[in-house]
Amino acid sequence: MPEAPEMEIYKNYLNQWVKDKKINQANVYRAKSVNLESKEFCTTVIGKQIKGILRQGKYLIFQLDDGHFLLTHMMLDGRLFLMTIDAENPQETEVILQSNAEDLKQRFQDLPGKASVVLGLSDGLVLFFCNLTLGYLHYLGQDQLQTKLRELGKDPLDPNFSAQNFAQLLEGKRGMIKPWLMNPKNISGVGNAYSNEALFSAGILPTRLISAISLAEKVKLFDSLVNSIRESIRLGGDMEEPFASWDNLTGGYNAYFKAYDRAGKPCLVCGETIQKSEVGGRNAFFCPHCQR
Length: 292
Hints:
The protein is of the alpha+beta class. It has 2 domains: 4-149, Alpha-Beta Barrel (N-terminal domain of MutM-like DNA repair proteins), CATH 3.20.190; 163-286, Orthogonal Bundle (Helicase, Ruva Protein, domain 3), CATH 1.10.8. Helices cover 31% and strands 20% of the residues. The chain has a 4-stranded antiparallel sheet with strand order 1-6-7-5, sandwiched between helices. Strands 2-3-4-8 form a 4-stranded antiparallel sheet, with helices on both faces. Helix 8 (192-202) packs across helix 9 (215-235). The model has no long low-confidence stretch (mean pLDDT 96).
């Protein structure tokens, strides 16, 4: 599942390529992926200009020039893909929008899955929202958007969120630390991969009770979480599927995980074998020597 680093990379690419573009065409291939009737959704978004893209946790927010927003969540398998159409063949966009999802996947091998929603943009750009089986793309007003965002906890990269704030959030909390980190109502944008990495870097077992974590450890955990996320963004995140055919950054962090998905391999710090167990219904990866 894409987490904060992967969604931040998407945001950066989208602001570079899609910001200020106009939505000239649209097609919905999976009706459940949008919150309006398919034809109504297309009619509503066509003609709108994308003024910018924001990220909050695992959400991407497309700001439209009518004061509304497109809110998307990739969930487990959702992916974005940007295609550039030959300026000398503008009809190609129309052909794409009129094709069905199966034909698109067969025709364009670079697509990272089955198209759920496709937007034809100005300057020959086509933005694919793929595999939104659990994910979605919703057209929302300001109040609707704020209602959704109020459900989220603080984003680790929020400049107004500090280690002290993080420690205060943990005060009086019960249960194990890893499930708490992964709950978007506590901290937004953190999933299985980066909760494992942050806990490893902080030397804290995923099963540690929050009540047993010292203030110094809480500060170290916050710093480890922020550093893991920032480093992943710098190196390209965890996803294997590129954002566009020219994208050679995405997925570059895969080789740098220290704990996540490394069960049975030696710890890069002490050489002990990385262990795997189920914590809170999700896989936890940890070093039994380096983490306490």
